[in-house]
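Dear Dr. H.,

I hope your travels went smoothly. While you were away I took the liberty of generating a structure for the chain from your last submission, since the lab meeting agenda had it listed for discussion. I wanted you to have the full record in hand beforehand rather than looking at slides cold. The sequence, exactly as received, is reproduced here:
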Amino acid sequence: MTKKIISIYIIGVFIVCSAIGQSVPMYSQYMYNMVNINPAYAGTRNEPSLTALWREQWVGLPGSPTTKTISYDFAIKDNKVGLGVQFFDDRYVNNISRTGLNFMYNLKIRVSDNGMLSTGLKFGLYNDVKNLTNYYQGAINEPNSDPAIANNLNKIIPLAGAGLFYYTDKFYIGASVPDLILFSKVSNYASDKSLYQVNDIHYFLTAGYSYDVNEDVNLKPSLLIKAVSGAPLEYDLNTNVWLKNIIGLGVSYRLKQSVLALAEVQATPQLRVGYAYDMPFARPNSHEFFIRYEIGRLFPRLNTYKID
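The corresponding predicted structure, in token form, is as follows:
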């Protein structure tokens, strides 16, 4: 019966992956809180973790995006089940915003002496707000006749996501479709029903490894690949060097887009803070702040698998 339940659950993961998706924000410090891009990651650290991330993209460019997320994830049932909740707020040009809540659930299956496979699902919703007419009239100062921005949008949109995540104490690899809309089209406009907001699926592949150079130095390379219909593959190549597991310094290269500098500090056994400075080749620079508090470190810990 247990095997049948697991099989049905995994089939459900891939059914969700076939839905139509929607654009997702970009993160530079994804490797420290992958619940943002993979629901199967929730609870894999086996310690309850509260994480916040704040990203200011292309600072100084009018209408530049800003993203804020707060998430809490943990494991239950002897670390066989992971749960998570995430609040997010994305804003663009001060007239377009997405504010929502996600819930994550995954099953963890031991596949080797040192390896676990997590299969995860995510469900949630967000408030999609587009004040198009106000923006047009404020910018142009004349009545609007373009049907594409003739009406505002304010809708509650349901979401789903799915992912797989395999991990040991030194290695991980994951695949996910993190942000899916349950309906393929969302009507935007009252004046022209043939115009729709159409969203494309985003696919993510992540991998990372932890290598102990010596007792004081740890090298952590990682990779992120993002694919979306109608756009070239996007690669993030990252390397972080940790000194005595207290200070982490790193660099990333986003193919043909930008170079990133990363810095993290394990301020206390419970608290980690991080900063990323993105230097795009064709746009203004971006800033990203990260903070994680591990509530579980205040209590006796169970077996853990952590390489970030």
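Two observations you may find useful: The helical segments are 2-16, 132-140. The chain is about 10% helix and 55% strand.

With kind regards,
E. W.
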